[in-house]
Specification:
The protein is of the alpha/beta class. The chain has helices at residues 23-26, 30-38, 62-71, 78-88, 90-93, 95-107, 126-138, 160-174, 201-213, 222-233, 272-279, 323-329, 340-349, 383-396, 408-411, 418-437, 502-509; strands at 5-10, 41-44, 110-117, 143-150, 180-188, 218-219, 243-247, 250-251, 260-263, 295-300, 312-314, 334-339, 363-368, 401-406, 445-449, 459-461, 468-470, 479-484.
Length: 523
């Protein structure tokens, strides 16, 4: 190893095309500006086929982004895995699917689907839900209940009714005397069910009460619930409160003994906690009250180390030969840090969807607890504390590879607040300035990049009217890749590169030969 390397992920910071909606361009970022003006850098692809998604119309996300950064390879991911499984029919030939359907037929019980209702292709896709409902009918299931989580984050902020109408039309086309299918409950994805990294178990508790027990404010339809809440609370889809669909004062789709339950998100981070609530006998994060005896399955197995859930419909990519493994083989000690919102990304996702460490001796993970407040109200988040930890790691002299993630550009960007996101990006820039200042006393190489865009594309323009509305989803824009070293000026090759090229570049800088199966180095 030549010298230590610090690898900074500015989550959600890309190169925008529209200055009016580009919070990165609008922000005061003297450090990032200097790096781009004075250091070897290029723009790399962070979406679509570069990260294993079906097409370049598919936005990247932090999970597939950190997979690619951490393993140096492009694996088929999420939506593509599920698409292939449905198209080939292998999902419905799987033992899990056959068991879930047979359970409903044998007990004349319901099959429940819980998940994010959109075509954002980040956590889920409505087409997968429709395919499974149609197959359930073919297999003799007599009742299906759908518990919808409203998006407004990976798709336009107030697009929920588009997906609800599409689902209701589909359910109407399937419904007959032998097959009852309906929406049973729902709520915004940032209010119920889809918490991650155990940041807010109350979200999961509210989801459990809504989906399982049918406890909550009742409405005759999902459409009426959404329209009512929008008038009352003036919030976007992701923040809509929970609702229960009822007839004559009774919930239409509580989860009962002998039912089958499928969580149809393919992405793992926001599926793990609700899966724990259904599967764990010794669960103690909240009082579940009545716990129905059900067959539970995920679209994928969301955590391979925890074997969670035990049953799943599609096998996840088996990621091997990661950068962490290579560094451990060469005896290089690593340090990974972020705050709660992205801690799992610099550890679990970086290490190929593995919860544990490659080496207890050579890997140190540090989580800075996130504040449980809306990110637009505190857009600096924990950038200062994350920087403190990075500087401590540099000063210790213990580590050959230090990686961190600043979540601000992504998490604040998801709120749709352009003003707050500018502040979030400026907070990251301040953190970068402190890391660079440490070069005055410590010799290391710095790489600065991102996992996908978001803060760079903050407005939607109506193609017909030209009206502008907040955009809360990721972008399809490229992201920076910058190398700063006081002593060596690295030359970045000509070519088209993506996130998966970063690992080999890191290895080259550290003086290690990259494995042959990795994407090529950029230097």
């Amino acid at each position: 190893m030549k010298k230590p390397l610090v690898f900074v992920v500015m989550d959600g910071v890309g190169f925008g095309k529209d200055p009016e909606g580009d919070a990165v361009k609008q922000a005061n970022t003297p450090t990032l500006d200097w790096l781009l003006a004075n250091c070897p850098n290029t723009q790399i692809k962070a979406h679509g086929t570069a990260v294993g998604l079906p097409s370049d119309a598919d936005m990247g996300n932090s999970e597939v982004g950190h997979n690619a950064l951490g393993c140096g390879q492009i694996y088929s991911q999420g939506a593509k895995l599920v698409n292939d499984s449905i198209e080939s029919g292998s999902m419905f030939r799987s033992e899990t699917w056959k068991e879930m359907a047979a359970n409903c037929v044998e007990h004349k019980s319901a099959m429940h689907f819980i998940g994010l209702l959109s075509d954002g292709n980040v956590h889920s896709n409505i087409s997968h839900l429709k395919a499974m409902i149609a197959e359930a009918k073919k297999d003799g299931v007599s009742k299906v209940c759908v518990h919808i989580l409203l998006d407004g984050r990976d798709v336009p902020a107030t697009s929920a009714l588009q997906y609800v109408d599409e689902l209701e039309d589909f359910l109407s086309s399937q419904r007959d005397n032998s097959f009852d299918c309906r929406i049973a409950s729902g709520g915004g994805r940032m209010v119920i069910t889809m918490d991650r990294y155990q940041a807010n178990w109350n979200m999961v508790k509210e989801g459990w009460e809504t989906h399982v027990h049918g406890v909550g404010r009742q409405f005759p339809s999902a459409k009426e619930a959404i329209e009512t809440y929008r008038k009352e609370f003036e919030v976007i889809d992701q923040d809509l409160p929970a609702f229960v669909i009822a007839e004559n004062g009774q919930p239409v789709g509580t989860i009962e003994d002998n039912d089958s339950v499928i969580f149809f998100n393919f992405r793992g981070d926001r599926a793990i906690e609700i899966s724990m609530a259904f599967e764990y006998d010794d669960f103690d994060h909240f009082d579940r009250g009545r716990r129905p005896h059900v067959l539970y399955a995920g679209m994928l197995q969301y955590d391979g180390d925890l074997k969670l859930p035990e049953k799943f419909l599609v096998a996840p990519p088996d990621i091997k030969n990661t950068l962490s493994q290579l560094l451990v083989e060469h005896g290089i000690k690593q340090y990974a840090v972020s705050e709660t919102q992205k801690y799992g990304h610099v550890t679990y996702f970086w290490n190929g969807n593995k919860s544990g460490k490659t080496s207890e001796e050579l890997e140190v993970f540090c989580e800075v607890p996130s504040d449980v407040v809306p990110f637009d109200q505190r857009p600096w988040m924990k950038s200062a504390e994350v920087t403190d930890k990075v500087l401590e790691a540099i000063e210790s002299g213990e580590y050959g590879f230090i990686r961190c993630n600043y979540p601000n550009g992504d998490m604040v960007g998801h709120t749709g607040s352009l003003v707050s996101t500018r502040i979030g990006v400026e907070s990251v820039d301040l953190g970068l300035s402190r890391i660079i200042k440490a070069m005055e006393h410590y010799d290391f190489t710095l790489i600065v990049t991102a996992d996908h865009g978001n803060a760079d594309d903050m407005i939607e323009r109506n193609k017909k009217t030209g009206a502008i509305s907040p955009k809360t989803s990721h972008s399809l824009n490229p992201v920076p890749f910058i190398i700063y070293d006081k002593d060596t000026r690295y030359e970045i090759k000509d070519g088209h590169f993506g996130l998966a090229n970063c690992a080999a570049t890191v290895a080259k800088i550290l003086g290690i030969e990259p494995p042959s199966m990795w994407e090529e180095s950029m230097i």
